[in-house]
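Problem: given the chain below (181 residues), write out its structure.
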Amino acid sequence: MKTSTIKWFGTLVAGWFAVLAAPASAQLSTTANGPYYATPSWDQKLTTNRFVILANWNNEAVLDRETGLVWERSPSISTDWIQASFQCMRLYAGGRSGWRLPTVQELLSLVDRSVSPGPMLPIGHPFANVESSVYWSGTVISGNVNAAWVVRFNDGLVDANSKSSLRLAWCVRGGQGPDAQ
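Solution.
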């Protein structure tokens, strides 16, 4: 019985060392064809290989492996909140429909406050045309149907804006959506 326990433990240790010694080429690349096997967990903090440009989506979308959300690779034009919502609903990027404005929490998950000057995105992010500006969330202000939360990518802060203001739209797929608030 002792011998089998020692052999089992030895095999376990050998397997662990094999995983640790895996070459860098075995790691996830930033551009790849799927499947991507995102295992999102909002309690994890990925410092490498967080974002994957989805090659089989015509490189028009980015998977955030930390949250499991798929982001439009290049955010959209400046518009009011109603038009931003419609723009995301009509978006057909990477051969996919089903886009929406992100919740304020989802949008904040992209902010890296250690980056200065903005846009305050994690170093090495694969997004294109992100401005150091204000982006709409799909989260409306409780008690004020004429206002919604925005995220400022110049300083990483959250603000309330009138839905008639002109702000940028950044569409997302997956997650809970703003109606879960």
